[in-house]
Predict the 3D structure of the following.
Amino acid sequence: MTRITRTLLIALGAGLLAGGTPADAATYRWVDDNGVVTYSDRPPQPREAPPAPAAASAADATAPGAVAADRATIDELLDVSGLKRQLAPITTRIRSEFHAQHGQLAARDLARAEQITARHVRTETVYGLIAEGVGKRSDAAKLAAALAWYRSPVGRRITELEVAFSRSSGTEREIERYVGRLQQSPPARERLALVQRLDAAGRATETSLDVSMAIIRSLASAVDPYLPAERRLSRSQLESRIRQVRAQVFEQVRRLSFVMMLFIYRDVSDADLARYVAFAESEPGQWYVSAVSGAFVDAVGGIARGAATDLVRAVPPERWQQGGGFKKPALPKETAL
């Protein structure tokens, strides 16, 4: 997987759950007046739909071809870096994280909630939003350099290791044994330093938490109008609570990220890992991390908003056993290690 894909898999616990099959329903896409892109299984309602586009001018005639060429390059980058091949388990884990945050529901309500997330959180929808977001952040020279890295022998080998990990199942015991071996024989100081640099350059912990916070923010905002006045939060109060939760779990997520990187790259030599670190710290590497992480968090936030809005309409928050309250994010299962 990519530098940032490894981050996302740590954040979402991919590899522990099998990838889901995309739903067959039609998908509609529109952009509202605030520039927010929405994907849904229903067409936009009159209040949601954007203004009708103006007639295209002759100067715009070549725009579609230019966009297609740029998208093709982005698709190639997301493919060779491993993201495209790992998106099914990532999507599955987003659904799981969403359900973990809304709390326990009665069987009938949970079935309805799962139908809603199956419609909103689709592999092709998530990928489309990520590719679109990366396109908006595109830098031709840095994109070309990132492509060159992922095409290199070291880049390909590391990517294949990451893809294999993301598609594996039943790895909990293997990771537990690995952690036990670490306790008996800790890695060399140089190895630890490389992994620390990789974590910092890839912003693994930060992105992990941003994904969970995006889901929490979406659910809390959707539930807020249904709460008694004394329990409602202003936007500033909600953001303050999110910052508090983020700070409380930061170190735990950081330690998890660190252990998982040691495990994933355990068979990579120090020399090759150093080359990976050098790429992650370079300008092209930093562009890639920033573009993909930003696009991913934005995608999760937009999808979660749509799912949360439909959920509160289908299952009133008073039927949520958690009461629709704000709570800590559910951490990935690997924290049990």
Remarks:
- Residues 7 and 204 are 5 Å apart (CA to CA).
